[in-house]
Amino acid sequence: MSQQDLQQKVEQLCSVLEDIQQNYAPAVFANSFGAEDMVLTDLIARHYPQIVIFTLDTGRLPQETYDLMQAVKDRYAVSIRAYCPDAASTEDYVAQHGPNGFYKSIALRKSCCYLRKVEPLKRALAGKKAWITGMRREQAVTRDSLEISAYDSEHGLHKFNPLCHWTHQNVWDYIKQHDVPYNALHDRFYPSIGCAPCTRAITPGEDVRSGRWWWENPDSKECGLHVEKK
């Protein structure tokens, strides 16, 4: 993609972010510190201060992700609210199933995702009018029908996916052109990064999400954060 084409995509993205800031306050950006989210972090931190950035600290993230969190705070001087799992629920889960019980079944894995991600997300979105994600259509079969915006009936607010039409190359072209910090695991063949025990490196040619919950069928590879209830 030419620099002019990328600039056009960035301008379209900024138009969406400006609309969110002006018309959907209070709005928040759910930042998982992946490559896509770093594009949004760079723009929001520099140009859209009324959009609040938060993250879900599951307690099982890779050290590289925590290192990037600190690098973002140092570089952009922004405050990022971290929402953590309920301590009592986490203690109960580990007592019943062990620290790695999520490998035993999809149900146990989803239970772990619920207490470490979904429940904290509910707290993060309470009272908000909109939330922003870094999801893209080409990331997974579960995301191939994403739209830039849609009403999120589960949380009672608008959900924006302003990068949904961006490609992997678009994301990395932006990161390189603007010298945006990113997770060191990306250089070790981790295109999609979540909790440490549920994320692995991939080999050339594998789907970008194949390193997430690699023991499961691709059709089930969501943690519950972005699944619409029917």
TrEMBL record:
Residues annotated as the enzyme's active site: 223 (nucleophile)
Entry EC no(s): 1.8.4.10
Cofactor comment text: Binds 1 [4Fe-4S] cluster per subunit.
Pfam families with a match to the protein in the record: PAPS_reduct
Residue positions binding [4Fe-4S] cluster: 112-113, 195, 198
Reaction(s) catalysed (UniProt annotation): [thioredoxin]-disulfide + sulfite + AMP + 2 H(+) = adenosine 5'-phosphosulfate + [thioredoxin]-dithiol
InterPro entries in the record: APS_reductase (IPR011798), PAPS/APS_Rdtase (IPR004511), PAPS_reduct_dom (IPR002500), Rossmann-like_a/b/a_fold (IPR014729)
Phosphoadenosine phosphosulphate reductase domain ranges (all copies): 28-201
Keywords for the protein's UniProt record, in alphabetical order: Cytoplasm, Iron, Iron-sulfur, Metal-binding, Oxidoreductase
Cellular component per GO, a single term: cytoplasm
UniProt xrefs under PANTHER family: 5'-ADENYLYLSULFATE REDUCTASE 1, CHLOROPLASTIC (PTHR46482:SF9), 5'-ADENYLYLSULFATE REDUCTASE 3, CHLOROPLASTIC (PTHR46482)
Name of the molecule in the record: Adenosine 5'-phosphosulfate reductase
Species this chain originates from: Nitrosomonas halophila
